[in-house]
Amino acid sequence: MSNITITPATGTWVVRAGGAVLGETGNALELHEDGHAPVIYFPRADIAMAFLDRTDHSTHCPHKGDASYFSIVSKSKTYENAAWSYEEPKGDVAQIKDHLAFYGQDGVTVEHV
To answer: Domain with 89 in it: what CATH number?
Structure first.
C-alpha cells in the first residue's frame, strides 16, 4: 500500500490560470504520497468554479478512489483536464472531499504566497 499523509498546508496558496487568480486559500491541504511530489488541494469553496468545466475524463487510484477532471477556461485558452477532484474519496483520505488539485503547466501555477 502506498503511504499517504494529508496535513494542513501552511500559509496562503493561490492558483492562477492565464494570469487570472482562480482561487486563494489559507485552508489548503497538502497530500504526500510515496513516490510523488506533494500535491496541494484547495477547498472547492475558495475556487472560482465558474471557470472550470467538468470533463468526461476520469482516473482511478487504488488508494484515493476515482478522480473527476475539470478544464480551466480562461480568456486566452482552455487548459484541458487541468484540475481534478475525488468526489467520493476512500476513507483514509476522506478530508480531500470537496477539494480540487491542479496540474502546474505553462499558464497554470500553484503558488505559496
So the answer is: 2.170.150.40
